[in-house]
Amino acid sequence: MINEDLSLRLAGARGRIIIKLSGAAARWGGVVPEDPGIAELADLLEEAAGTFHDETASRAKAELMSGVAHLRAADRLGGLLPAVTLWHLNQTLQRTDAARRA
User: Fold this and answer.
1) CB–CB of 38/75 below 8 Å?
2) Which residue in 75, 25, 74, 71 sits closest to 47, CA to CA?
3) Is 45 within 8 Å of 63 (Cβ atoms)?
4) Fewer beta carbons within 10 angstroms: which end of the chain, N or C?
């Protein structure tokens, strides 16, 4: 019963972060599908990072690419380690916020 409760909480948290990451991808100019997967969000953020060409935006690009790496790791994990996947998703959210501030 404890594991089931934890799994439900992690799934809920994952869903909330995916919604936030969808919003972040949209703010960076991505066209987000209705129900995006982790790999799709990684592709959108990678495209956004590819639009930076000058040195002044290098920090924002580095933050976005770090977020992309975390999304790719979360995608590879799939549903095997939900807590670790959630950590990677949170890291991506932090990176997209940091890129906005850069």
Assistant:
1) yes
2) 25
3) no
4) N
Which residue in this structure is represented by tokens 């969000």? 41
For the chain, what is the mean pLDDT?
92
Neighbours of 41 (CB within 10 A): 26
Give mean pLDDT, residues 62-79: 94
Rounded CA separation 50/47 (Å):
5
Instruction: Tell me the whole-structure pTM to 2 decimals.
Output: 0.90
Give helix then strand counts, H and E, for the chain: 4, 0
pLDDT at 88: 96
Contacts 24+ apart (CB under 8 A), 56-61: 57/102, 59/99, 59/102, 60/99, 60/100, 60/102, 61/99
pLDDT tens for 19-67 read 999 999 999 999 999 999 999 999 999 999 999 888 778 999 999 999 9
The token pair that represents 58 in the structure block: 């290098």
